[in-house]
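Hey, I was hoping to borrow your eyes for a little while. No rush at all, and the record is pasted right below:
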Amino acid sequence: MKRLLTFLFLALMFSFTFSVLGREKTVLAAEEDLLISEVMYNPQGADSDHEWVEIYNAGTDSLTLIGGATPVSLRLVDGGSNRVLALEAAQGDMTLAAGEYAILAQNAATFLDNNPGYSGTLIEVSGMSLGNTSDTLALRIGTDGAVWSGLTYFNTWGGDENGKSLEKVDVLGSNEEINWTESSSLGGTPGVAYGSNAKPQAVFSSVDQAEVGKEIVFDASASNDTDGSVVLYRWDFGDGTSTESVENSINHAYNLAGNFVVVLEVSDNEGATDRTQKTITINDSVVYSEEVMLSELLPAPGAVTDWDGNGTADSNDEWIELCNTGSTSFDLGGYSLDDIADGGSNPYVFSQGEVLAVGECRAFYKKDTSLILNNDQDSVRLVKPDGSLLEEFAYSISHPDLSWAKDETGSWLEDETPSPGLANSEENQQDDDDDDDDDDDDNQDDNGDNSDNNNLNDQQDNQNETQDLQTTSIAEAKKKALGTLIQVQGGLTATSEILGAQIIYMADASGGIKIKLDEGDYSTLALGDELLVSGILSESWGELYLKISANGSLAVLEHTTALAPQEIKTGDVGENLEGALVIITGMVTETAGDTFYVNDGSGVVKVYIKESTNIEKPRMQVGDKVQVAGIVSQYNDTYRILPRYQSDVVILGDVLGTTTALPKTGGTATGFFISCSVLVAGLVLRRSRLL
């Protein structure tokens, strides 16, 4: 038995010895096939983890590289040190096909960060440290095997901390200086033969999810080509839409909800291509409930009344009141209160569960919101969870312990008896409103009686008293001093009671102007009437107007074709068009209550539908194309367009996408995120021989 065991042991030892000797013999025959072909020895910036060496299988058979620290493992000789290869490749596998390149990297993860488009074999080498001024590199088997592909380089050859590598010109040639050169592109050309065109790298970014109809920016500016330039971007948005462009970014909106795979393919100046993709989630459009409103606010608390009930009357007694106008309870979660846009206060965002009961009004105090309202001029804004404006009220001045309160018509009036948490009192509201700002106090005659001017016929009779007054253009009239008696002639552009009590608008070739009528019946006035008007030049909330009083008059000279609105850009609305009848076409950028905003690319303009017009605001959402006709009006520093009639507001074309109404509780929309990963698999080659 002992003899048998001894025989088996000797047989195994002989077999192992023969196997090892056989491998070494094979290695000796293959030394010339594996060559060093490129070196990144002194990267731009820090060297640590950024150095690498490229090797190339110049033979006709595949080669299997053995990592680790065994006697038959491949080693990278670096300045006399035998560097150990990892047992497994970080990318690809340990077998190189004939003509295949591989990268021996100081740090595989860092290499891929620097070269995200590299898809070849990548092997990490422990302890690699290449000299910056000079070094000697070679390959060997084990720690004492013969070296081959020896290279001694110097920084004078190129690639010295300028982001470029040293490349071997003729990969089968010598390792003399004449056969090595600095790479033409930053980062070198890992995995690519000298003089070959490296393929570009496709990279793009975008949001991961969006709503139907919302434009998404797809940015491919990070796409690159190491040895040339990206010249063409081809996009497939996964919804049946594809396009190509020489620009590196593009906008696209989806008309349906769902998950879409977006594919980008880029081409370089040599025709090489690369592609990448990601999945984007498109959710149904969200409409947030608007059944909550600003109702009252107190910006200037006095030194007597302790409004918040904390025992002290001070500046912390400022408050803003909200009311639930709907038929169900309203959850304020996600909605926010803010002062003037880009002001000094941070928005106050309501938490989920902050509920207003049906018909409830509630005051929110400064001690809780930290909102600071200016006494002289400021605004209060109610903002939806998606950041769009629901309502805004701007005031010019506030008096101590007087509030600004909204009446039943939606007008804001100063109230002598603030009522936080209660219905607003109309008896003590002083007329000094915001959007219904046309109800200025009329001047009366010395007897306080306006009976001499109570109808249109009386106004025409009064013309005789001012017949010697010189008629001027509306544009010139606006240049006169306030209080000047002026006479103008023009066509009627807005009939009485449409844009305010006793208010009309007229225009001539030079511009338009508001007319504040005296008491009387003006129901017979019609669009197309040519008017001769005299009145006192006045101003209200920044807008100039003529006020007809005892010294003024209005006469209808003739009836002609109604004036057509002037077609303008949205960005043109301003002082020079105040009072003019205009028409705009553009996209809705924001909508809230009776207000919406339009932009045709030249700038945003506010459109406000006054309650007195009885216009039913068309159902609209952001992204809709609209056409609006109306009068340009000024309120404080804001210019807006006031539609006159239902036909002045038209939705053009179909609404983009599907609209889903939210419950009246003001809940938020939820979505889901799907990411798409691209698996790059290395080519697994059959091992034919060992190295």
About this structure: Residues 257 and 282 are 5 Å apart (CA to CA). The chain has five domains: 23-182, 209-284, 291-430, 451-559, 566-661. The longest strand covers residues 529-540.
